[in-house]
Amino acid sequence: MIKFKSKKLSVTEQIQTMQAAHPQFKPRPLINKKTRKAIPLNSAVVWVGELQPTKLSRKYQAKIEYRVDKVPSTNIISPKLALFEDARKLPHIYSDGSLCLYTPKNGEWHAGKSIASTIVPWISLWLFYYEAWLITGEWLGDGTEPRANEVP
Amino acid sequence: MTATPSFSKYKILTELDDLLNSIGIKLQISETAHNEAKKRYGTISQLLNAEDSPLAKFSPDIYPQGSLRIGTTVKPRGKDEYDVDLVCMLKADSEEFPNPLVLLDMVEAQLRANKTYEGMIERKNRCIRINYANQFHMDILPACPNPSDYEIYGEHCLLVPDCAAEEWKDSNPKGYANWFEEKARSATTEFRKGIEPLPEQQTYEELETLKRITQLMKRNRDVILEDLEVKERPISVVITTLAARNFNGNPSVIDALESTILSIKSEIEEAEILGGKRIEVLNPTNKEEEFAERWDTDPKLYATFVDWVDNFIGLLAELRKQPGLPEIGKQLEKMFGERVTQEVVKDYVKRVSDLRNDGELATAYTTGLIVPKETPRSTSIQTNNFHGDD
Known about the structure:
Number of helices of chain A: 2
Number of helices of chain B: 14
Shape of chain B: globular
Order of helices and strands of chain B: HHEHEHEEEHEEHHHHHEEHHHHEEE
Helix content of chain A: 10-25%
Number of strands of chain A: 4
Structural class of chain A: alpha+beta
Distance between the termini of chain B: 41 Å
Radius of gyration of chain A: 16 Å
Oligomer: heterodimer
Largest interface: A-B, 51 and 42 residues
Strand content of chain B: 5-15%
Distance between the termini of chain A: 19 Å
């Protein structure tokens, strides 16, 4: 696979592009769990915002955590995502509960891409297929499932 | 392009209307099957008109009546066959044939004489049924002209065998179909007068909302009353007539369903107030015929009908209150059946997925709504695969 060098976006730039397209995603500093201290906003950020995939859908609260040199991690914090009938787990979710939004080895996301123009739309799309899964029991959005212990 | 477009073929429909409209369309006989039926009864017509046919002198003319004619067919639950109701018009004088069964016998004989229909013919009380396995069964009802009613009800008046198959009774399937179409048209015109600005003419005409709500009401009856015998449920012509006379022309399926069923409820309450009576459902093209005559002979049937109306009102109210798409899906399954709802949802998802695969989707700024790419203030959804192994 060709790895090309593209200019990485800084966290500040990520915050700016997010503000321009999806201002409902408000940035906050990420708290270091060990030191309980806020990490400076030029190194990491947490956004929480609302998305509604279709006019008939609920509104969902999504949280996106991003640290420089790591991949963004997305969780749906509300409402609690229900399961289809007798399914035991949600589809396309990593073992840490975050959403599988893209395939890393395809370079679908890398640090040169704006999270606002990639991750956020993919969350809406994921939610759309999640709702369809709740009705039909089938994941109609293609893709492959993560392995059992996989984390992003 | 409206600000929040749905992925509906009809841009003026909301997403919920689109789902309901799709359910109605999915329940009706397919164009293929419809054309197939036409071919088949055309063949039967030719057979009856053949030179050596004793019926040839009556110039038999076979045409559909009922739901097939007006476009409100609903697939019977649990079966894959449609009921195709046909009239076999014979230019015979009913005075010469006071017993309608004589003509019916002649039709049966001519059909049985032809090897094609061997094993497919069933003699019913007042019609001949031809079974086309896994497609449809055709019920052929003999009829002759009724010129005595032409002046009042038009030139399509007929006589058909009555339920006991002993005498002729009045009927007017073509007249009824014309009445139904006219009701749809005039209500829609009236409704549109109240809207500014007028939306695209063509789309409104395509919508056929009255047909859709009639189908959905019939289907809900089939689903909710599935434990009752067919003859204990409200009959289709009653539902169809009540729908047509209470339709207000609103193109929105959900709004039309609601206003129509509430209007029917008002009729029921009014009749109740005026002396504990039941509503009347006279054939608008033959006031001598009361479609709901069985409500007199068996009052329980009227009670079933009234309960069904109340229940439907409740179900619609619940539908409007559902907070999300999966909940709406569940409610639609409850109202119209699981399989058809699932199919409609999958079709809807497929439409969106096809656009996704063509790179035609975006999400709107601020809301995250999935919209077509050209929508202003939106971000294109870039290619993604929901995870793969590294």
